[in-house]
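Good day; I would like, with your permission, to put a structural problem before you. A protein sequence and the structure tokens that stand for its backbone fold form the material at issue. I would ask you to consider whether the tokens describe a fold that such a sequence might reasonably adopt. I set the record out below, with my sincere thanks for your time.
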Amino acid sequence: MPLLTYLEAIRAGMRDEMRRDPSVMVFGEDVGAKGGVFGATEGLQSEFGEWRVLDSPLAESCIVGVAIGAALNGMRPIAEIQFQDYILPAVNQIVSEAAKIRYRSNGEWHCPLVVRAPFGGGVHGGLYHSQSLEAMFCHVPGLKVVVPSTPHDAKGLLVAAVRDPDPVLYFEHKRAYRSLRGEVPDGAYTVPLDRARVARAGEEIALFTYGMMVDTALRAADLLEAEGVSVEVVDLRSLRPLDREAIAGGARRCGKVLVAQEPNLAVSVASEVSAIVAEEAFEYLDAPVMRVGGPEVPGMPFAKPLEDFYLVDVERLAAKLRELARY
């Protein structure tokens, strides 16, 4: 299998689906000749033309609104938001329209829409290019929210999202774009939109996380393994719906649970995972469920030392694992 970067795998997924299905289109700021601000759509307009890879105005509500209209009229649009930080003007379209179309039509209408957006810090982006807002959308019934952590899953989840009859928010950690590389099969394949995966088997602590934090978790687990502590790393992949069976199963197997994420912990994905463990695996626990995440500050700092302090790195995660192991 060819080795692709995370970014190349996303592009390959879009290209394969556009070749397979002429109803698949891409819409967003600078997605055409420029190929997107990160290059995710590079070369797609030259292959598929301006009517299937359309540059939009700088207006996120327009991007998603037009994509919803296209989805209701037989297309399968992929709407790109340049940075997740700027998705907020489109929240009304996503939450009040796309998420509710199936329900309000009593199942008669579907909205096969994918909204792609890069998120997360570690790229010296400051307040307005580093946010992680995925938990906001995980609260909304009618939406699916996925975050791939490997090039293999980046392509497979995107293909599955395009083929899904309902709206999917597909969030890509921008630090992963060129730093993660892995084997990616040629041709189209899918990864289920509702299943976690065990990224590393272990016996003593179940560590649940997603996105770029999976790579950090695997490195921290290696450190703990050298110290005699066996850590299982579970990549959630799907944040809405969460794989409750995988979460409860990991907690039951290991007896100790740590949930890690990049953003702050209040009312978060980590909060929901912790609640699932408490509801479905409490009697198997040998220690309190622990969480680690970003600090409770309004935004990620621009200065590199402060940005580094904000992010959960390998040593900080390993320290939390050691604290949990001592119980």
